[in-house]
Design goal:
The protein is α+β, with helices and mostly antiparallel strands and 147 residues long. The chain is built from four helices and four strands, in the order ββαααβαβ. The protein has one domain. The protein has a four-stranded mixed β-sheet with strand order 3-2-1-4, with helices on one face.
Length: 147
């Protein structure tokens, strides 16, 4: 997740169980914004970004005809984008930094640089998808949100 609201940038990664219908992105967003002392706009953006990513993965699974019955994902490329099931929520010492939220205060120059970088990234993705044949799976790379 990469969300910028005003001059604050939140970067975090976590694992979400697509099969758990009791998990709510809104409840998760409420908890993380309370823990980090972030504004309500972050809460909305976090929940929206989680819902977008869930929708992209579910759409990808639907396109390939996945039965949603616990069977392994048949498509090799799509299967590679899913993490294996976890047995414990503990992380090793070298993984802690990757799974810790980072909250950065950005200058105007850094915000402009991020905006230009996102525009270049969007153009690159459009070029890469032109001319592809066969079944087109959605881009599963998380979108960056800037408000």
């Amino acid at each position: 997740m990469d969300i910028t609201v005003g001059n604050m940038n939140l970067i975090d990664q976590f694992e979400w169980d697509l099969g758990d219908v009791t998990s709510s992105p809104e409840q998760f967003a409420e908890a993380i914004t309370a823990d980090l002392g972030l504004s309500g706009e972050f809460k909305t953006a976090i929940a929206h970004q989680i819902r977008e990513q869930i929708a992209v993965f579910l759409k990808s699974l639907s396109i390939i005809g996945h039965p949603f019955n616990g069977a392994p994902v048949a498509d090799e490329e799509l299967r590679a984008s899913f993490l294996p099931p976890i047995d414990t929520c503990e992380r090793t010492e070298n993984q802690v930094d990757s799974y810790t939220p980072k909250l950065l205060q950005l200058s105007e120059v850094e915000i402009d640089k991020l905006t230009k970088e996102r525009e270049r990234d969007a153009r690159r993705k459009r070029r890469q998808t032109k001319g592809r044949r066969g079944v087109q799976l959605p881009d599963r790379e998380p979108n960056k949100t800037q408000r």
